[in-house]
Each structure stands twice: as C-alpha cells, then as structure tokens.
Design brief:
Elements (H helix, E strand, L loop, with lengths): L12 H46 L8 H30 L1 H9 L3 H29 L1 H14 L1 H6 L5
Length: 165
C-alpha cells in the first residue's frame, strides 16, 4: 500500500566485487602507510627531538644572547625544519609506496590515497611540533634561572636584549 515493504533492488555482483576490492586495497594501503611511518619516520621523530633538546640544553649557557631568547630562536629553527620535513616526507612516501599509487590510479582512488598521506604527514608534523614545544616549556624554569646570571655576566650584551616584562 505505502511501499514500505518493497523487495530490495538487486545490486550488480560486479559492483559489489569492485567495491570489496577497493575496500581491501585501501585498507592494505593504510596498513602499509602506517608500517612505513613506524619504521621510517618514528626514528626521524626522535632524532628531531634529540637535536632540539641538545640545542635547548645549549641555550642554558649561551654566549651571545639571553638563555630564554636563545631557546626561542632554537625552537623557531626547529619549526622551520619540521616544515621542510613535511614536503620531504610526502615525496618519500609517494615514492616508497609507488606500487600502491599505481593501484590507486587503476581503481581511480589516487586522490583519496594522496589525501590519506597528507593527513598522516600533517598529524606527524603537528605531533612533532607539539612535543618540541612541550620540551621547551619543560625547560622554562631552568632557562629563567639561567637568565639572571647570564645578564649579570654579560652587561653589554644584556643591554641589547632588554628583559621582557
């Protein structure tokens, strides 16, 4: 009467099979992308943080700028390096997973695969920046403690860098 209990339309088995194959391919691609991120870029993540930490530690006893300013400069350099890393990562991932990109072309999902790569790289870089900022914040007390002795030991240089209020 109202058409509520109509017989469902038949779906072409070819369409169902194509859908299932696309699902499998995209899931396998996502797994391979995550494995690549874990094996190749987790060490990079740690290495970038190690370099930042070393530079922040050097900021505790700088020679040419106050410790807090020196640490801020080092963090800004770190941010620039992470920005450069983002483009390099994307290129490396596309090259490493080029076989998957060929499959993506065949099943017309290249844009979706590239979008997943972009989202993954963006998250990686955001996490790296946030972790680096936390390292800087964790050193705030030590940097502040090093500031006054540096200013007392370097009065001429200190005059060039008035303390922030």
């Amino acid at each position: 009467m109202f058409g509520w209990f109509q017989k469902p339309k038949q779906v072409d088995p070819k369409i169902t099979r194509a859908y299932e194959m696309g699902q499998r391919a995209s899931n396998q691609f996502a797994d391979d992308l995550q494995k690549l991120m874990d094996t190749r870029f987790t060490p990079t993540f740690e290495a970038y943080l190690g370099v930042l930490q070393g530079q922040l530690n050097k900021s505790l006893s700088p020679t040419d700028a106050p410790p807090i300013l020196s640490a801020r400069i080092e963090y800004n350099v770190f941010l620039e390096n992470v920005t450069e890393l983002k483009d390099k990562m994307t290129g490396e991932i596309v090259a490493t997973l080029s076989g998957w990109m060929d499959v993506a072309d065949q099943i017309e999902l290249r844009d979706m695969f590239l979008e997943l790569i972009q989202v993954t790289v963006q998250k990686f870089c955001s996490d790296l920046k946030e972790t680096g900022l936390q390292r800087l914040l964790d050193m705030a007390y030590a940097l502040k403690a090093a500031e006054d002795p540096w200013r007392a030991a370097n009065p001429e240089l200190s005059a060039k860098f008035p303390p922030e209020t």
